[in-house]
Amino acid sequence: MVYILGVPIKDERPVKYALLGFYGIGRAVADNICAKLSFHDTLKVKELTDGQLTGLSQLLSNMTIEGDLKRQRDANISRFYTIRSYRGLRHAAGLPVHGQNTRTNAKTAKKLNRLQRRTYSTSPVGTLGWSRVLPTAVSILQKIKHIH
Amino acid sequence: MLPNVRSTSNVLNVRTGLLGKSKFAWRHRVCNCTYKLEQTKYRNSNGIQEFSTFQPLNKNENDKEQYRESGNLRSNGKKESRSIEYDESNKTNKKSPRQGQGSSNGSIVLDELISHDDQHVKENHKTMHWSPKTEGKMYEIPNPLLEKLDALGAIEKQKKSFSFFSNPVLLHREVTTKLYNILQRSKDVGSEKGRYVLDGSDGSGRSISLLQAEIFAFSHPNYVVLGLHNCERWVDSSSAYAYNPSSKSWVQPELTKEFLTSVMNVNSKILRTLSTSKNYELVPGKSIVAGTDLHTFLRKVTSNPELSVKFYQPFMQELDAATKKPGSSVNVLFIIDNLSILSVPTKYKNPENRNLSPCDFYFIKSLYEYLSGARSFHRGTVFAATSSQPRIKTPSLDVALGKANFDPYVPINNSVYESVKSVKVIPMEPYSVNESLSVMEHLVNSNVCLEPVQSHLQNHVLSGGNPRLFFDTCTRLT
Lengths: 148, 478
Known about the structure:
The structure holds 2 protein chains of 2 kinds. Chain A is mostly helical. Chain A has helices at 15-18, 27-36, 50-61, 66-82, 86-93, 107-112, 130-147; strands at 2-4, 7-9.
């Protein structure tokens, strides 16, 4: 297993398809990357030399992928809400943004559209989640401690 | 070949139902018949063997000739019996059925195979001869040459059809004689005048003809064979590639190393007799001095893929120099199979993510230079062949070989067109009737074909003389 920019990639996979594991890289971008670095189609991750690995890491670090891309997306949504645009209000209301029907369907928008946009996760919908409860619990305990 | 049958004493009763269920499907089944095979002596002797195919009607030993001359069908529509006797003195026992019977009487097929089973089948394949007198004859490939051809990768696609036989055998055709004549004339002719392309339809025998040219070259100790088969690997983006600023082209180090290694292995004897004319520096501190034999030169060069790329052209120049030496009889044969795939855009990409042209590659560009005559050997021949595998459109090659006209809406590769337009084309002709007969005899003798030899005319017509179709027609089971 090779880690590139913190993302684990299996050794046996061809590089062209292993790059699809990055958030923000699809087939077209993966093809472009392989062409730029002169990687042939059947080159596997384990066959990459150190120089090729370095070149790949350098190229990927100059691209907006993974966390940077997610932050950019969230920032865009926040800006829409801040300027009180229609799209921002729809994101905030958890409703479809692109003019879809709401009388029926719109399940995905209701599930995912937020100001801090959620992605698919395994925690059930509607629960607070430990990541949101814990900071609040800590702050309450600290206040109680101060009172005592 | 026969299915397992039970025998009681000397009489074997075989029902057609059993025959019909055997793993070999007969071309024409005889229904509702009982075969009685009487075997007088043990299996491998040349005894008298009577096979009566139908019981008990009209069985008269004195009327054997009458049976042979009579028609096949009875008035009730059932197929007639026929008994065949083999004389003890007739040791060759090459029994051929009557004309016209092969297609209508399945019992003849059965009888022929039964008779073949107990006879000594002699496969008298002559050794190779290079004269036109052996046209239409089959010849066996000797094992040492077979290993060399395998090392070159020349018989990858032929292994399946060769597996039908105990030893691979080739047919000496008219086109083979043409190739031999060209090679024999090339003793004093440079490769710029000896550039040929074999072109024909699918399954017309282009790759096999190149094989035969290689066999000719391997049989003569003064030939250096540079064989490039399976050219798809050079263009299908399955090997490493990189841009070389010094040559301003793209190089494929691993494939170049493989090519030079195969050349070194199959031409080891003659390469040991040739020597370099100047010094070459492999790496700083290591060099090859002048006078080193070419086999050692290649051995050192192929130790590293980068060195293989760097010294590929010097090696070719050394070969050319060897052919120019006074008193030298060294001849070079350059074989390029599947020129078609080398004439279309490759699957490799440049940094702008556009497909690379074949002439952008250092090695493939050199192939086209030898094909065009820009580079040549002082004594040598270049044979190339188009291919139908994989099925692709080759507009540049078609226009260059004169098979198509310029189409303003179809872009062609100018480099490919300019390189190939001056090459002489050898068209691949279909089998002649005699050639079909030779192949059919060989297939029947090898027990690969279930039909009688006389049906070669029928198969020739059905296949149109196309070698691959002819082989498929002869070897089909139903």
